[in-house]
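Here is one such tokenized protein:
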Amino acid sequence: MSEPTASPELPLTGGCNCGAVRFEVRAPFESAGYCHCTRCQRRTGAAASPAGVADSDAVVVISGAEHVRSWEPADGWPKSFCVLCGSHLFAGHPGEGDGVGVRLGAIDGDPGIRPQWHQFVASAPVWEPLPDDGLPRFDGRRPD
């Protein structure tokens, strides 16, 4: 299993593609992984979505909150994005609930953690084989 790298200096910073939304992650990520669910595939246009999980109070939108919109499926975490450029930012809402999944690609620089698992592998697309990386795999949602 991949281990986190040395802790980066906090807070971590990140944002959307157009720069309208900026956020900070003020505590180290608790875990990170790849989601292969169909929603993540359609939302990102990729085979999987890598995200770091942080305490919801540790994720703070510091500018551009008015540009963040969320799609809230009935049976999953809210999916938040920048309404101006479409960049995917979070699963969950910063400051609400138990945790927030922060898209690792939205972080500036090294997030200080590496993906540690694959979830929803039963939904992984046939056109992109799962890598032989030794990480645990879960057919559905990873157990907490």
Q: What stands out?
A: The chain has a mean pLDDT of 92. The longest helix spans residues 38-44. The chain has one domain: 12-138. The domain at 12-138 is CATH 2.170.150.70 (Metal Binding Protein, Guanine Nucleotide Exchange Factor; Chain A).
